[in-house]
Amino acid sequence: MVVFYIHQKSKLYKPSFISNTVENQNYDYIILGSSMGLTSIDTKLVDQMNSTSGLNASMDDTSLGTHYLMLKHFLESGGSTDKVFVTISPRDVANKNPKESTNDYRFLPYIYRDYVHKHFNEKLGPTHYLSLSYWQPFVGVSYYNLEMAASSAQALIQPNKRNRFDDKGNYSYPITGNPPKNELDEITLAWENPYLVKIESLAKENNIDLFYYQAPIYNLKVITLDPKKNLINHANKINDPSLFYDKIHVNALGREEITKIFANEISLE
After folding, report:
1. Which range of residues forms the domain containing residue 115?
2. How far apart are CA 158 and CA 25, in angstroms?
3. pLDDT tens digits for 13-23?
4. Which residue in 21, 29, 201, 259 has a CA-CA distance of 20 to 30 Å to 73?
């Protein structure tokens, strides 16, 4: 399938960027997550402060199942890392029956890799259009026509263009936005998502130190009763609404603030 081949050779979407960036590279750490991971930690600033090498492998509109697949993809693409920080959300870790994430289709160019097909088959079932694309690639391309077929033209012309992330995988929201106004709330994490176990097993198999990271959420106190999860909890670490783009995302100023806190707190030796 030509569309798949073009995307494989590009850096437009995060899976292709990872595949074409990490081979034979060893990183001190990588960041996994959804848009909260993508926009909260600036790996360039962390590296500047700590003299390290990091990569942000987060992809917007995804969940723990996709984070697991992204870690697998990173490793299968020839990358290695000493530590991984998995950015979480309370709703996601409590989800016992995870389904498709909005941007899972970005792995379609790699559907013929066994681990990608197996992931979709197990997560979504053999009749789902992502799973079916292994046998009939036009199914996925047709369903995601604008996202896959149309974008392949851009990827062909500009193979090094990246879709809303820099050369280290980071992105930030602008200072403008809709700053939150909600009152202080509290939630206790329920660690029930089955992909938590899969991520932990994959990290252990590859001698990777695993940490979970709770990024800032405006006026939300997050509690965990499981100390074994190695949680870095920054949910309520900053609480100035001017540092937030919306309730669950910091803006560019907030990203700089929380990244400095993150860099000073973690050990990357």
Report:
1. 2-265
2. 24
3. 999 999 999 99
4. 259
